[in-house]
Predict the structure.
Amino acid sequence: MIHSLFLINSSGDIFLEKHWKSVVSRSVCDYFFEAQEKANESENVPPVIPTPHHFLISVYRDRIFFVAVIQSEVPPLFVIEFLHRVVDTFQDYFGTCSEVAIKDNVVVVYEVLEEMLDNGFPLATESNILKELIRPPTILRTVVNTITGSTNVGDHLPTGQLSVVPWRRTGVRYANNEAYFDVVEEIDAIIDKSGSTVFAEIQGVIDACVKLTGMPDLTLSFMNPRLLDDVSFHPCVRFKRWESERILSFIPPDGNFRLLSYHVSSQNLVAIPVYVKHNISFRDGSSMGRFEITVGPKQTMGKTVEGTVVTSQLPKVVLNMNLTSTQGNYTFDPVTKVVSWDIGKINPQKLPSLKGTMSLQTGTPKPDENPNINIQFKIQQLAISGLKVNRLDMYGEKYKPFKGIKYMTKAGKFQVRT
Amino acid sequence: MKPMQRLLQLPVSAVKLLKPLCQEEGQSRMLSPEGGQQSWYNAVQPDELKLLKSSAAPENQEEDPAESGHTQPIRHDDLKEMLDSNKDSLKLEAMKRIVAMIARGKNTSELFPAVVKNVACKNIEVKKLVYVYLVRYAEEQQDLALLSISTFQRGLKDPNQLIRASALRVLSSIRVTIIVPIMMLAIKEAASDMSPYVRKTAAHAIPKLYSLDQDQKDQLIEVIEKLLADKTTLVAGSVVMAFEEVCPERIDLIHKNYRKLCNLLIDVEEWGQVVIINMLTRYARTQFLNPNHNESLLEENPDKTFYGSDDEESKQEEMDTALLPKRKPYVMDPDHRLLLRNTKPLLQSRNAAVVMAVAQLYFHLAPKAEVGVIAKALVRLLRSHSEVQFVVLQNVASMSIKRRGMFEPHLKSFYIRSTDPTQIKVLKLEVMTNLASETNISIILREFQTYIKSQDKDFVAGTIQAIGRCATNIDEVRDTCLNGLVQLLSNRDELVMAESVVVIKKLLQMQPSQHSDIIRHMAKLIDNIMVPMARASILWLIGEYCEHVPKIAPDVLRKMAKSFTNEEDIVKLQIINLAAKLYLTNSKQTKLLTQYVLNLAKYDQNYDIRDRARFIRQLIVPTEKSGVLSKYAKKLFLAQKPAPVLESSFKGGRVVTHGDVFITVPDVGVSEWTKPSGREKRKEKVEKPFYSDSEGESEPTESADSESPTASESESMSEIESASDSRSDKESDEETKSDNEKNKKKARKEKSKKRDESEDSGQSEGEEKTVKKRKGKEESSSASSSSSSTSEESSSENSSSESEEDSESDTEKKSRKKSSTAKPSLRALEAKQKEISLLDLDDFSSSPTFQTSPSPNTSSKSLNLDLQGLTLTDTTVPSEVVSPSLGAVKTYELLHRITGEGLSVEYCFNRRPFSPDHTMVSVQMQFTNNSETELKNLRIGEPKLQAGMRMQGFKDIAILQPGQVAADTLGIDFCDSTQAANFQLCSQTRQFYMSIQPPVGELIMPVFMTENTFKKEQGKLMGMNEIKEKLTLPEQFRSDQAIVQRVMSIANLGRVPCGLDNEYRFAARTVSGGALVLVTLVTKDGGMAQLTINCEKMVIGTMLVKDIMQALTQ
């Protein structure tokens, strides 16, 4: 399936290559560079590029292109999904997936890649299995290894490979048994000029951090499971139980994992926690434009809106901005024409606003469209959809774990058209 | 060095051929165009220099030949020394450096002997790295690699399963042909290993060995068979993968494991799931019935123990039963149901590939009612990474063509954010356009309005095209869209303006006469627009509709003549075109200009333009030599052209391959994929019963598409000739026509245009099937499963004889069929032949191929294609629609605007089969609101029909704005009588009594027939059924064309070829009863003629005689 993998940095250097079958010359990447040039922006490089003898399937993450070379018919998502999994694994191993990190750990990277694919077909992609085979590098371990001569490579088959729960290794032991669950909801919305909602939906995830001894079997139930319209599970969740009782029953992987992602049905009205008053105008012939934004809370269920950041991509004719904000700082990048205003907490008594003028290029006509405004925010202790976890039970082990649930609402792709 | 470098500059394909030769260089020297690799060497150097210091004898080391010209020679003796030492830590350090070099793509092959020694090293990490090295270089150093084999053979016996497995992995990854027997042995042994992990590795090793030596296939299949029976989930995915790569055609191996695979599926790891689901989709499509095929419902194979047996014959039996259509209700096979049930939970998988695979399975295999579940899951994937989004949207776009309803509730999820990458935006637009329907069009258009203001101009251009497509597909909003687009003409951005021009051009073709003001406006724009495509579009519009802008057109030509030399090629071609058209309509004013332009073109640098100029000069400027063609020049240039069909680029063959790579790749040659042929064959076999009923309609599209361009061109030439037969000379000396008549013609043009359009929409579904069908057909011919394909042929012949385009002659049909089904070489030969006949144009009238009988409309269409070879149609070429023969179509008034209080209704018989029910006569209605107020809720109220008469197809019109025109097609079964159909038309406030009385000529539809069948049928209808009448033809009706044209205009007849010069034969069937109507007209000297009609329905016969007599004598 996957023949070769090339890692290409943003300046166009191939800094790593790995072949699982016979060697494919890296000149095949020329086709990729060609497509990249044509696309002019990194996100616009087509994920699948046909060449006379191969197909190049690429993903772009952390300013690195992961280009897979394939030669036979493969579902493209198979490769794309795998490449993303590779990136996730690297992040898991090295903390980040930067070019520097990969270069520094090139041997580990190579060993990991070797284990992940055999003859181009995925062999082990579960992080706990991989970590047993090749231990992640830590400073302590490096020191120990140089002294004792022991290695990073495990010499026994990871237990997960053979068990029916490949995501969990056996013999896990913790002094403090804890299980934390974060319910994080993101609001995707498009708000039109007049402030009415064109489109809004809630996407949520439950991320878990489980550090429990042995083989615990957990069940998690919701107060209002009907809210969940469309769900996707970590493989550990028993689907049948969910279908019949709407209860999440699972043997958790060890450590951090995403238990569930869900979609709250679009039939439900979505509460929009913030509103934006804006007045952005360009005048024909004038070299000045007005720019005025006020952000205020709305439908927040009594919680504070935090971490608010407003960004906007302004048209090319804007040369500079001269603004004053009542709260927080703003920056304007004259190259990319992005204005970004970091507000932080919104105080409902004193609404933050950003006012001022834009200096425009003279002699050019005014732009057709006012810039769109993107907003990020966070609301702690609130799941905007109203989803609530009812209880978490553990079976199969004797000890009493510490359990914790946290709710949070964030802005996803929250866009205001002006 | 020099020749090597040259080699490397060859295209990749060439380099590939020479791979063994230049591989070393390919790896060690970077081919990246940026030359950014240089920095790499610099970065690495200090490291290596440091090593060099410690090296004892740098001189006697061999140099890497490729590096030497580049940087300092790199010597590896320090590494060798380290590898030779006793200390594991040193070895490890050395191996790490080597692996790092491999990772950067450097050549370290000369270290092979030193490295391979360490294959038996005790340290497991050193060992692993040595494996990495071995796998990388063993292919190049086969002899040395053999040294390591014994170590692996030892490893295969190790008690540790991980070591056994990794020994097998490496052994099978070494691509050395000599060890094939050893590998085979190892795989066989490992396949029965205790540990499932080792068995999994064995499954992985199978395709490796197969790619190394294809002769091992039979033995490998045995291993696969054994592993398929394995009950552990760990093995399942890998062995199915091996199955797909080695022997996908051995579907019989799956039978007995089918249920087990279905049941294991949910517990298999995610990558295995993808492979298994894809395989099961293929399996189920070949082994089960299509649940959505309601017509010819088939019985399921009663043999329930089927999967327990491996019997070839029972399979054959099933195939046979599948071919025999039985009218029994469809019952889903329990195994089919099992598959659907067991895959459904996987829609909830976190892995996008799994979700897509299940979606694909459901799309193909689930009953219509159940397919909807995948929409939600696919929409969920849109939240994922942009690459995933891209692929999913591609699939959604093509799925939404077939099943729009499925995604309609999720329309809002496809709304575009300004932060989306352009390629995602374009795909979302595509999906939104596909989802557009009467109910949601207003919301969609409102969204589009915001998009048009975007700063991303490519995206704006895409939006404009999308608006154009919505406008063509949904009649109600056409005018709104057109107005919107006209406003965009004043946009400041030239690209936006140009795109609007191109789209407006396409829209205007649908109803040119109403919009001459827009054409005029566009004529003015030509001074400002610089984008060649837009200029060309404007010129074409002016040329095509020069009668609407008679004053401006010559002036535009004058301006363009002035700037001719500076224009782009496509613009030049259109200038020539415009000149030719103007010359034909308004030669007084433009003769000199045309000649000037043609002279300029004669010496143009581009040979296309020179050719075009030469071609046109011959056609339009009358000389002694070119008399034959120039007579028809006007018809050639000013033929009615159907409006282009703006349709999704996702429409077409790619629908078959959801989820495959090439659905994401535009215009990829399928030949690129070495797909297992067995798969194709099976697919085709199943599709046959599925789609056979659409074949009649599909025939023309198919043949037209599959012909080589030269062939179609020559065909169009032949049709030009044949077209002239059918048209009256009234048209040929049109220049002397009065204005009055011109207007009439205009109206007629408009009518027929509408008809085209309505048919296009009606046929679109059929077309989609067609494409699929065609694919299947091509595959069948390539797979040379001759027996099945011939049966298919014959079935298609049968059905096509009932089909609509009966007016086409038999000979032509045959030749088309030949060209569509013949093998490529044959086709090429044929094309050549036609080319030859194209070359000697002068005597082509004597060439027998051109003696075909008329099919005027088809001809004007393909002619149009060729004339539009002026690259005007950048979207899809309008598909060849079949239209019945016609001269003029008469319009009848149903409701006058005075009696209708502003509402006027006209109708005409458009001579098309009424698609829902072929026993009905299709009546094209046109409603015009002439009042000041809008009319609401137009519908048909209680028809008062004669016994047996039926009526259907009228869709209520919700709102008719003032000045708006709406069209609809109505089907009426007149029961082969000329009695009127009476009904009421109700508006919100009033009721109007209406009555449609069909002329007898409209109660029949043409049929295909050969001369012999005609005679045979005629022989059966003698005596009472035969009516003879003598008549005298007036002077102007004595030419061939005139007679044919007159007869065809009065009755919907199909021409039958005839050997005699003075005899004309026509055949038709009554629409409702299907009774044959045969018309023979024999002319004699002095305008005398005898008309014979044979028809078992005597009433129809008598009335038809009367009508034809009247038409021919007046």
Summary: Helices of chain A lie at 29-39, 76-94, 99-104, 106-116, 127-133, 139-148, 159-162, 239-245. Chain A touches chain B through 106 residues (CB under 8 Å). Residues 76-94 of chain A form the longest helix (19 residues).
